[in-house]
Design brief:
It comes from Toxocara canis (Canine roundworm). The protein is built from seven helices and no strands. By secondary structure, the protein is an all-alpha fold.
Amino acid sequence: MEFDEERSIACEMSNIFQRLKWIYQKFRLSYTLPFFILISYTLIGAAIFRKLELERDQRERETFRDSYNYAMDQVLRRMLELRCQDVVIRADEHLQMRYAREAIGWFIDYLNLTQVIKERNDSSPWSWYGSMFYAGQLYTTIGYGLPVAKTRAGQIASIFYIMLGIPVFLIILKEVGRLLSRALRKLYKRIRTAKSKLPTRQLTRIGMPVKALYTSAYSIATSVGSEHRKLAHVELDSELGANEQNALNKKL
C-alpha cells in the first residue's frame, strides 16, 4: 500500500512537472521569467524600504515644516518692528508683510537654499514609486543619493538587498545581452539577404529591354537577309535566262 501511494505521488509530481514544462515552453518563459523575477524583487524591496523609512521621514518633514513656518513668522514680526521710512508701507500691515516676505525669499534664494527648503517641505519620497526607485538604485549600483535610508534597520536591509540583488541583476543582463545578440544577428542576415537580392533584380529589370532590343534587331536582320537572298535568286534566274537566249541565237 505504501509503495502504491508513493508511486501515485511520484506520478502526480511528474504530471505537474510536465505541465509546468509545457507552460514554460508554450509561453516562452525563458524570455519573460527573468524580467518577472526582477520586477518582483524590486516590488519586495520597495515594500521593505517603504515600511522601514516612510514613518520616520514623514515625522522629520513635519518637524521641519513646523520649524520653518515658526522661524518665518518670527523673522517677519521682528522685521515689522523695525522703523519704516515709507509712510504708505508703514500704514498698511499687509503690505509690510508682503515686502518682508519678498526680502526673506530673496535672501534664501541668494544663498541657494530654495531647493533644499522646497525638498524638505514636499511630500515624502518613500512612496511606492520612490521606494522602487531606491531599490533599483541599489542593485544597479547607480546611487543617485535620493532617497536615502536613514534608519538603522533600513541601512542594514539595504546591505543584504544589494548582496542578493546584484547577482540577480547580472543574470538578467546576461539574458538581455543574449536576446539583443540574437536580434542583431537576425537583422544582419535580413539586411545581407536583401542586399544580395537587390543587384539581381536591377540586372533583370535592365536585361529585359536589352533582350527585347536584341530580339527586334535579330528579326530585322533576318528579314533583310531573306530579302537579299530573294533578290540574288531573281538576278541569278535572269542571268541564266540571258545566257540560254545567247546560246540559242548562236545556233541559229
